[in-house]
Amino acid sequence: MSNTTNNNNKPNMPKFNVSWIYMIIIVALGIMFFTGSTDGASGVSRETSYADFKKWVEQGWASEIVVNKDESTLKMYVVPEHIRDVFGAGTDKVGTKPHLLVEIGSVEKVEEFLDQAASEGKFSGKYSYENKQGSDILNILVNILPLLLFVGIWIFFMRRMGGGGGVGGGGVFSVGKSKARMYEKGHDLGITFKDVAGQEGAKQEVQEIVDFLKSPQKYTDLGGKIPKGALLVGPPGTGKTLLAKAVAGEAGVPFFSMSGSDFVEMFVGVGASRVRDLFRQAKEKSPCIIFIDEIDAVGRARTKNPSMGGNDERENTLNALLTEMDGFGTNSGVIILAATNRADMLDKALLRAGRFDRQINVDLPDLNERKQIFQVHLKPVKTDQTVDIDLLARQTPGFSGADIANVCNEAALIAARRNGESVGKQDFLDAVDRIIGGLEKKTKVMTADEKRAIAIHEAGHATISWFCEHAAPLVKVTIVPRGRALGAAWYLPEERQITTKEEMLDEMCSLLGGRAAEELFTGHISTGAMNDLERATKSAYGMIAYAGMSDKLPNICYYNNQEYQFQRPYSETTAKVIDDEVLKMINDQYVRAKQILKEHEEGHNALSQLLIRREVIFAEDLEKIFGKRPWVSRSQEIMAERELESDGEEGTPPPFGTEENKDA
């Protein structure tokens, strides 16, 4: 009973607030400014009569006199030796520079009196004038401005703490609010599936999400459950974010968009708080879509060993995300879309059924999809009749949607630079060359020997690729420096779903053709083949360690997907076998490349001389020197088929009309 009484008698203490600290600081500073007298440090002031003033001046007790004409007053500062005689106290009480305040009738009379006192030797101090009104204003400003400054700072912090510091609650006390940008209606973004070229498989999978948001009753009546989350996985620039926006635009529902890094903050617990606030807002706007871009920033796999540098704040944010995704109702109408290009790093709990039920692969576009992407990005570009979308699609293997958009923009810039009225085919080819190899550096100075060595090197690549059955067809070769490369060869690679060992060996032989030509025809080797050797070595290791294409290690894959595992999945003995097999494979192809070059030495010499003279040669030049290529590639078959289809059609330009593409 006594405990209850004691609890009831306790006063209701107000909750502590950080704003109290700011208030106490401001009040203390105000007291210091208003109560701290400057006179205490320099001296006090006391009024006296004009007669006493004259008496003390005649006695020689005045050290300085300051006259204020506007108020007809003066200040007389007393010499330190006579402060006690005038004020009746020492400097410890009246200060080091006390003064007397005297009312005067006429400034002229004071001047005459002081001149006479000075001539008699009774006054030898300073005599000056002051504007009292200006001095008061200055004093007021000096005393008030610091206080106003602190009041302004206090108001600023109060607004920040009240949530007025930024969008999404950026204040100190609202730092846990979600930073997601909300679009009330998804179609406000102005993006639909029509703006997403290619990716038909991915669009088909997300179409089910759109149908559910438009008519959920059709699914729930049959007991169906729509996936709670969909994870868009693919390389950078393939259109994952664009696809998510198109889903919101098609569904016409509220769309919350934020990045995974928006959950991360320097304060502990902020990430988890923002996750909870995001899902609270989403439930209020249901049905809606939450899109988290680059989710690997918070969804990275949790480590089992805390000593390995685990970040507790990031893991708490991930735990909150896992809880919220599995916490709201199954058919609440809140669907989560996320995008990442590092799905292998995500926590397994995030990918389980009930959270991200399905993964939608958004891969690099193939040939037909690149055509569609070019058609989308070419709409705002003013092109002429020479532009061939099929050729551009073949010239850009491995390009993502963002790369293709960059090609179109770069082509428009090149056309504008040459003052063209429209963007032509050559502008696009130059744009592709610039993006792949860099800007031409025609001003780079090279000696005759260097130019000859580069020409022999590039001619070696071209010769080997011409006589290897599975090597990519050549488009053009140049010895004009581009970017960091002193020369380059352009090919038209075929897009293969699977690659055979023979095809990979032919590509490796073509890569080693430059170094082989240097050794055969110049008698020495150079650093110009460094990139070729790097690519050939990586290809050889991949064939042997991953693809099982070795004679001594057949049908074995040593690929390891464990990022934090510090041991190789094979022994030291096996590592030695892999190294030996890689060395043997590369040396065999190097010998093969030298053999091909010896067989076609005259043609290679003619090709290198032509390259020195013209700096850029095309596939038709190789055809004049070596004759028709012995093997017909798939690209050539497609070209022949298109030429047959275009026979008899008037006004249709040939798809490969320029000399650099006739062989392709």
User: Which structural category do the helix and sheet elements fall into?
Assistant: alpha/beta
The side-by-side strand order for the widest beta sheet comes to 6-8-9-10-7-11
Oligomer classification: single chain
Rounded to an integer, what's the Rg over CA atoms? Answer: 42 Å
Mean pLDDT: 77
Give the overall form: elongated
Would you kindly provide a written description of the structure presented here, covering whatever features stand out?
It is a single chain. This protein has 664 residues and is α/β, with parallel strands linked by helices. Helices cover 49% and strands 10% of the residues. The protein contains 27 helices and 14 strands. It has a 6-stranded mixed β-sheet with strand order 6-8-9-10-7-11. Helix 9 (200-214) packs parallel to helix 11 (240-251), helix 20 (448-467) packs across helix 22 and helix 21 (501-511) packs across helix 24. Mean pLDDT is 77; it is low at 1-10, 36-41, 163-173 and 642-664.
Features:
about 675 residues, disordered N terminus, 6-stranded mixed beta sheet, 27 helices, alpha/beta, disordered C terminus
Write the layout of secondary structure elements.
Blueprint: H1 2-9, H2 19-35, H3 39-42, E1 45-48, H4 50-58, E2 62-68, E3 73-78, H5 83-87, H6 91-94, E4 99-103, H7 107-119, E5 126-129, H8 132-161, E6 181-183, H9 200-214, H10 217-220, E7 229-233, H11 240-251, E8 255-259, H12 270-284, E9 288-293, H13 296-299, H14 312-325, E10 334-340, H15 348-351, E11 358-361, H16 367-377, H17 389-395, H18 401-417, H19 425-437, H20 448-467, E12 474-478, E13 488-491, H21 501-511, H22 513-521, H23 530-546, H24 572-599, H25 601-614, E14 616-618, H26 619-626, H27 634-646
Parallel strand pairs: 1-4, 2-5, 7-10, 7-11, 8-9, 9-10
Antiparallel strand pairs: 2-3, 3-4, 6-8, 12-13, 12-14
